[in-house]
Amino acid sequence: MAFSLTDEQNQLRKTVREFAEAEIAPHVMEWDEASRFPSEVIAKLGELGLLGVLFPEKYGGAGLGYVEYAIALEELARVDGSVSLIVAAHTSLCTNHIFVAGNEEQKRKYVSKLATGEFIGAWGLTEPDSGSDAGSARMTAVRRGTSWVLNGTKTFCTNGHYADVAALPPVAHNTAPTPVPPALLPHAPPAADQPRTPVPAPPAAPAAPPREPLAARRAAPRPAPVKHGSPARRGAGGGVAPGPGVRTKVESGMEPLMMGRL
Ligand SMILES: Cc1cc2nc3c(=O)[nH]c(=O)nc-3n(C[C@H](O)[C@H](O)[C@H](O)COP(=O)(O)OP(=O)(O)OC[C@H]3O[C@@H](n4cnc5c(N)ncnc54)[C@H](O)[C@@H]3O)c2cc1C
Fold it and tell me: What CATH code is carried by the domain that includes residue 29?
């Protein structure tokens, strides 16, 4: 088995390295010290195809694979870990979930814009009181007429302030009157570097049941991990089958997309 990179992969590495050294390296300290999101560089990465490396060309992607994706991240991280993480969160955490679990309409609407960099993507798993223990997430989604009302708090969302689309799994649905797929994709109009309009606070959440102390939860035996591609992750037995994909509106004023389970 050959482990060396192909000529095309070596060329990709060279291209990303040259870009990173020319466009990112001179500004790294300035951006870091000013806590600045380098929107102009992210746009250029989109033009280079580096925001859609993994996705098929029919969705605006470069149609390449994980080796190429890893090469791109590696070369960006060689110069600026933050830029690499922006690309990784955008690609793996946001776009890829929609690509893997979304329906065709959702892929055309979101993946095609995320892959080209027209949209920036984020992922909201972590909450103030749950990180690794994703099953303890408390955000709820409650059906109200033709809308879904999201209620909860997310934190540590890479790209969060600049994202046009965010995937938010899992969503607790114990308060919902109807079954709710635990994944939501709010969609706000694209914005560049200008400050975002504050989103009105949602109504107070219904009282959550008392939580088991974290130490006790960590001590409890964990279920065996479910492998990617296994029947369980594909939906058999309550896994992650794509849902019906219901477009909706949320009271925050964002136009979200309710999609299948991630
Ligand atoms: C640079 C960066 C970017 C991030 N971007 C995002 C993002 O885009 N979206 C998002 O949702 N989140 C993001 N996060 C948050 C990240 O996913 C969480 O920090 C992570 O899930 C860990 O959660 P926590 O911080 O609450 O730590 P905890 O889950 O509380 O873990 C604390 C410690 O306990 C250990 N631990 C946890 N569970 C167990 C267990 N069962 N048994 C033994 N030990 C355990 C952990 O290994 C760790 O050492 C980001 C974090 C960083 C650092």
Answer: 1.10.540.10
